[in-house]
Design goal:
By secondary structure, the protein is an alpha+beta fold. It has 2 domains: about 170 residues; about 180 residues, Histidine kinase-like ATPase, C-terminal domain (Heat Shock Protein 90, 2-Layer Sandwich), CATH 3.30.565.10. About 60% of the residues lie in helices and about 10% in strands. Helix 1 runs antiparallel to helix 2, helix 2 runs antiparallel to helix 3 and helix 10 runs antiparallel to helix 12. It holds the Pfam family DUF5931. InterPro entries: DUF5931, HATPase_C_sf, HATPase_dom, Sensor_HK_TwoCompSys.
């Protein structure tokens, strides 16, 4: 039952204690014209206390809460017949006494402070009608009504906060368990599969020929597998948002270096997938037009309410007019796969190319404002296997000192 179960047990204890107090008042206090009828009402209260305690322990719903409220009001409205018409103006406590607070607390725990206040107002109206016969001074009953309303509001608020805290604790425990499982799997994979792939890559490069191609493929698979076991569990994403950095790091390989912030780079899930697809299309163009030996670098960063992904390569660059010519010939790799995706998200695409010095494709899309990823992003290590790491800006200066953003150059995307 968790923390919420403790609230329901406390309500059950309150009902029993209030029932005992009402019985004590009926047995010791005077002013009741029909005491036998009062004991009959008290018997109904006792039966409902037992029944409600059991019912709330099994299932809770609005029907049960409504019945609880109606039974309590029925017992309260029976007080004038037990006490006589002069008891209310005389200030005699109704036969239910404080037992009427039970359904208020139940509604508050189940539905929050608004439900608790609503139930308190209904009970208070019935109580004032019972006590207010013949127009006696309402100061004392009003104090009781105010206390009942405040109790419904406070208990409902605390119960709602407690439920949320319990849900967050549960999610944290699940994420911790998932993280431990990922670490266990990562250790097993590192001790077996990754070592074999590393060996195949090294030996293939040493042998050369067709074995070198096999080694290259083994290296790419090793990089992809390392990124898969290193990626954060899906539970780190917020509702409706995805970490673009996780999607981009899947492109990392021996030929592609990916640099992302150390903190999540959150975008709406659909937007993040579209940006990642555009980056994938740009990298496909690098392989197609620059050759298998071309290197590419991907840098993702957040700045001023937008996310920018820069893709660069060290290929031969794009000749002037080549993109327009490719689009006229119906080759729409840049126009649709890249520019079409990004502009559809309200973003922009800038292609900069210098013949003989490679190409840079800069994708910029608006981000949620403010980004729910916390404090400004700080750069972590690069995610390329076998690379010594370092800051993205350092990698940028090392490869393309003439860059406008100091980021990473990206390949000859010719459509």
């Amino acid at each position: 039952m968790g923390i919420e179960g403790s609230f329901w047990r406390a309500i059950a204890v309150y009902r029993v204690a209030s029932l005992a107090y009402a019985a004590l008042l009926l047995a010791t206090a005077g002013g009741y014209r029909r005491p036998l009828l009062g004991w009959l009402v008290l018997g109904v209260m006792a039966l409902w206390t037992a029944g409600a305690t059991f019912a709330y322990s099994v299932a809770r719903g609005r029907t049960l809460l409504l019945i609880d409220l109606l039974v309590t009001m029925g017992c309260l409205l029976a007080s004038p017949y037990v006490q006589g018409p002069e008891a209310g103006p005389g200030g005699v406590v109704p036969v239910t006494a404080t037992w009427v607070g039970g359904p208020v607390l139940a509604w508050a725990v189940h539905g929050g402070r608004r439900a608790g206040v609503a139930a308190a107002i209904v009970i208070s109206a019935a109580d004032l009608w019972v006590r207010g016969l013949r127009g006696f001074d309402l100061l004392v009953p009003l104090n009781g009504s105010v206390l009942l309303i405040l109790a419904g509001a406070v208990v409902g608020h605390v119960a709602r906060l407690t439920k949320r805290a319990e849900e967050r604790l549960q999610r944290a425990a699940e994420m911790e368990a998932a993280g431990r499982e990922r670490e266990r799997l990562a250790r097993g994979i590192h001790d077996s599969v990754l070592q074999v792939l590393t060996l195949v890559q090294r030996r293939g490069l040493e042998i050369g020929g067709e074995a070198a191609e096999l080694g290259r493929l083994a290296g790419e698979q090793e990089a992809a597998l390392r990124e898969m076991i290193r990626a954060e569990p899906s539970g780190t994403a917020r509702a409706g948002l995805s970490d673009l950095g996780t999607l981009l790091r899947r492109f990392g390989s021996a030929a592609v270096t990916v640099s992302t912030p150390a903190t999540p780079l959150l975008l709406p899930a659909g937007h993040a997938e579209e940006v990642a697809a555009a980056v994938g299309a740009a990298l496909d163009n690098v392989r197609r037009h620059c050759g298998e030996g071309a290197r590419a670098w991907v840098l993702a960063e957040e700045d001023d309410g937008s996310v920018t992904v820069t893709v660069r390569d060290d290929g031969p660059g794009i000749p002037d007019g080549r993109l327009a010519e490719a689009e006229a010939d119906g080759r729409l790799g840049v126009a649709r796969s890249i520019r079409g995706r990004v502009t559809g998200l309200g973003g922009t695409v800038a292609v900069t190319s210098v013949p003989g010095q490679g190409t840079e494709v800069e994708l910029t899309v608006p981000a949620p404002s403010p980004l729910p990823g916390g404090p400004p992003y700080s750069y972590g290590r690069e995610r390329s296997p076998g690379d010594g790491g370092g800051r993205p800006s350092d990698v940028a200066r090392r490869h393309r000192p003439g860059s406008r953003r100091g980021g990473i150059r990206r390949g000859g995307d010719h459509g």
